[in-house]
Design brief:
Length: about 270
């Protein structure tokens, strides 16, 4: 399965010289141009926006990172958008990135960042953790799966399911890793280890009659599931790894692996 990577983006270079520019909050940056105009920037959920504060004119708007990313140094904002401070390009050190108040990653272009969100079972979490531990010996890698209480599945209420329906107990998780951008083998190795443990394509099924309504292919960053669910669902047509109300009809619909998916394809750690 193709994983979600991002690195240094190619953005319009604004060519603006600033008299001052600093962090104004978790997501916010404020400054003033050498001509006296206020300028504001925001980086949240992977989206960077820059504009003039006096007129609201937007100068730059681009999705450049992962949906869970929000930390960036003000010097990095200037660097990515082609802005200078008193005629000088900003200096960004690894120490400044490591000690950033609200967190930051390397945007120099030397590093590729992996952020993959998924729904994961406890068994899938075990397999992914083993793979991440192995990868972390060579590259920065981690798995985050916050679990609250004995189960983490969400069923939208009010929702009445037919008797005999089983819904997998899953939690939302994030796999993150970093690889040198000049080492394609590093990315290939990470994808080869993690890819078989996840899948994205699933069928949306009408729970009442078992009819397939549509096929979801997932987005680049979201919509992945731990691959042990393929074998779990294959054991019974009444098993689903997600159930909710269809936004159009209100009827209960569930997610299952495509019929073409085989338990033999499940990755193992």
């Amino acid at each position: 399965m193709e994983l979600f990577w991002f690195g240094r983006p190619v953005l319009p270079q604004l060519g603006i010289d600033l008299a001052a520019f600093d962090q104004a909050g978790v997501f916010l940056y404020e400054g003033v141009t050498t001509g006296g105009r206020p300028i504001r920037a925001k980086y949240r959920s992977g989206a960077l926006r820059i504009g003039f504060g006096d007129t609201g004119e937007e100068l730059l708007s681009a999705r450049i990172g992962g949906g869970l990313d929000y930390g960036m140094l003000p010097e990095q904002v200037c660097d990515l958008a082609g802005m200078t401070v008193l005629g000088r390009a900003p200096e960004i050190s690894p120490e400044a990135i490591a000690n950033a108040r609200y967190g930051a990653i390397d945007w120099s272009g030397k590093t590729l960042h992996l952020r993959q969100r998924m729904s994961v079972t406890e068994e899938g979490e075990r397999r992914l953790q083993a793979a991440v531990d192995e990868l972390a010996r060579c590259w920065p890698a981690r798995l985050t799966v916050p679990r609250h209480g004995p189960g983490a599945r969400i069923i939208q209420a009010p929702l009445t399911l037919p008797a005999g329906i089983e819904v997998a107990d899953t939690a939302l998780g994030v796999v993150s890793a970093e690889a040198p951008s000049d080492d394609p083998e590093a990315r290939k190795t990470i994808e080869a280890r993690l890819g078989p443990l996840l899948f994205k394509t699933c069928d949306v099924i009408d729970v009442a009659d078992g009819r397939a309504i549509r096929r979801n292919h997932g987005s680049a960053e979201r919509g992945a599931f731990s691959s042990d669910l393929i074998a779990w669902c294959a054991a019974s047509p009444a098993r689903y790894f997600g159930v909710s109300a269809d936004p159009e009809t209100g009827r209960p619909v569930g997610l299952r692996p495509p019929v073409s998916a085989s338990p033999a394809r499940v990755g193992r750690a």
